[in-house]
Amino acid sequence: MPATFSHAPIGATLALLALLWLVAKLGGELAIRLRLPAVTGELGAGIALGSLARLSPWFPAIATDPAMDLLGTLGIVVLMFAVGLESTVPQMVKVGFASLRVALLGVAAPMGAGLLAAWLLLPTGRPVLVDLFIGACLCATSIGISAQVLQAHSAARSPEGRVIVGAAVIDDVLGLLVLVGISGAVAAAGGGAMDWGRLGGSLALALGFLAVALTLGRYVTPHLFRLASRFRSEQVLLPLALAFAFLLAWLGSLAGLALIVGAYAAGLILEPAHVQILEERELHRLEQLVQPLVVVLSPLFFVVMGARIDPAGLLDPRMLGFTLALAALGVAGKLVAGLAAGRQLDGWRVGWGMVPRGEVGLIFVAAGSQLRLGGQPLLSPELQAGIVAALLLTTVAGPLGLGWALRRR
Q1: Residues 63 and 310 sit within 8 Å (Cβ to Cβ)
Q2: Any idea where the domains of the chain sit in the sequence?
């Protein structure tokens, strides 16, 4: 990083923040004028900034800046908390079976599609575990991107919106199971033993956290906020609600889940009746207090995520066909999963809402780059570039398709 950005860390962070907010709004405005979701422009702005940093050492490396990573993480955590506030546990239970069906098929179909693309388009002679991991990268769903589109269309409270979010949460648990399972298989193939105890323990811990949070949390939070209503200080509701969301996000990470799952669970637990006294005293609903934070912080997440993607993988002619096929099959697999939502729901909306992989898929690729099989990386640099490029295409296609599905009658 150049001296201008390194000699004064606080000033550099402020300058980067100004840059990110500016390009996020410019990218979002351009996307809206092209009749695209604003989040698409924010992702594109991030890709442009990341490319400039790779081309010039004088341009700040946003993708690797710790401060930007922290602020981007805060953005997605606050966004998922806000999405959770728009639903309640009883409402989610009503679409629970539909979410489970969509999640199960949304893992099985894309993974099979990824195996098919690897088998047909990649050279022979590689271990089957490589194909399995490629398929696993298509299992994930990045609910943060779909949540932004749902909020923009005021559809987060719709039955389809709740099914999408619920299925994505289940996807996170199933994706954890797949990732741990393949990692154990790679360890066994490398001479180690399959750690079935770790596999079962990780899944049990993740499921246990969700069960405890959604049951015990509903009984604890009314007493907590009733006690807080006795505080004489003003503006208690928002800080206490954010503390609750961040605490559950941290506890969820200890259980092996993504931070966004715990944040969403916190919003789901905080039903309107739990915070009614504080809302009446402060003359604002909790959703209204959280929304400005979403507007400020969530664009940072999408710009930083875009900056981490290197589009050079799309220019490699050897991987271009594989990348396009992987992206197309990945989209098709999630659209097929949307049909499992049931006749009373719009399967196109649900399917397109499950398409974006985003940061969740990139986490899978990062994990695969650290696994070694026979002394070699499980995923070669070329494969990593091709998979990341395919995930980028699904990340862009998802909000486009979901926006179209929400506009159609």
Answers
A1: no
A2: 3-67, 74-407
